[in-house]
Design goal:
The chain is α+β, with helices and mostly antiparallel strands. The chain has 5 helices and 2 strands, in the order αβααβαα. It has a two-stranded parallel ribbon with strand order 1-2. The two termini are 27 Å apart.
Amino acid sequence: MARHLRSLGIAKIVYALDSYEGFKPSELEIERRLGLASPPDDAFKSTSFDYVRAKIRKLGFEDIVIPVKGFLRRLCRTSWLARGFVLLLLIVTLERV
């Protein structure tokens, strides 16, 4: 997304909200049991906040992608909503539905 925004000369910021703690094993098991996915046991475990921030910096997108440790409910309590959204992508884990 950052690469695409930059290539089009669009000066928007992507706030990447997440727990940055990876998926719980119980969440992966629910996905498997329901036949929704077949991730290995070690899937999505290298998503630490520091890792993601370093990766964004290495790719040169730190001016476009701002990682924020937290969830949408935190965003709703801030002035960020006044800035407007271009896109909102929600990833919901089954355990929290």
